[in-house]
Amino acid sequence: MYSEADQRNFWNKWNVSREETQGRVSSDQQRVVLRWLDRMGRRDLRIIEVGCGAGWLCSDLTRYGRVVGTDLSDEVLARAAERLPEAEFIAGDFLTLDLGEEQFDVVVTLETLTHVPDQAGFVRRCSRLLKPGGLLMMATQNKTALQRNRLAPPERGQYRRWVDRDELVELMREDFEIEELFSITPKFNRGPLKILNSERLHRPIRAIGLGGLVDSITRMQERAWLGWTLMALARKSERRAP
User: Fold this and answer.
1) Which of 166, 167, 168, 152 is nearest to 109 (CA)?
2) What is the mean pLDDT of residues 23-49?
3) The pLDDT value given to residue 241
4) Which domains does the chain have, with CATH numbers?
5) What is the model's pLDDT at position 221?
6) CB under 8 Å to 64, separation ≥6 — which residues?
7) Rounded distance, CA 59 to CA 49, Å?
8) CA dihedral over 10, 139, 150, 207, signed as positive or negative
9) Of the residues 93, 160, 209, 228, which has the maximum number of CB atoms within 10 A of its CB?
């Protein structure tokens, strides 16, 4: 077990790069979350982003209401608070922070579940934060896809346990009713799938007016659960009391 200090040190270093830019995976996750929020049609929401890192998404979330961002990365959050004073940032261990209960309309969390040792406790805590009928908007790494990639081993302080769609459904079953679950963003760095998803291949295909073919191939992989990310929209269940 890594100490909280080990984890905090790792994420403070890792999140520095996210203060400047985000890649395609994060941008695709952002697009889905904002679409879900737009569909709610409200600008008075109370939203918490759990594992907000550098707070880059919180800037968008403030368009929909009052925003709290929380993460272990205390140094990074201090800088986020300077950049975005209209949001509130709280550093610490999400499972032990006093954030109240039934305080939020929406919980947003991107690629955090993978790095939490107590994943069931994490999901349960998200549920407790939500008002009755509140929504969880989750993005998490898809084990089905990531196992097909070559990735460096975790560093000190970095927990890593990916889930597939069945494991995610099981984790959420007691606390949430899943309304949408799908994969997005095929991304591979080895084998035939690397070639199929290569920008070097896609660029000339789009240049000759066949961008629709590229998009169809991408959607086909996403429907086959080969996207890098699992996106889940879930409503707090009435079956379990807080």
Assistant:
1) 168
2) 97
3) 47
4) 4-186+226-236 (3.40.50.150)
5) 97
6) 37, 40, 42, 43, 45, 47, 106
7) 11
8) negative
9) 228
The whole-number pLDDT of residue 239 equals: 67
Q: What secondary structure letter does DSSP report for 15?
A: G
| pLDDT for res 242 | 46
Q: What is the pLDDT averaged over residues 127-136?
A: 97
Token pair belonging to 88: 């509130």
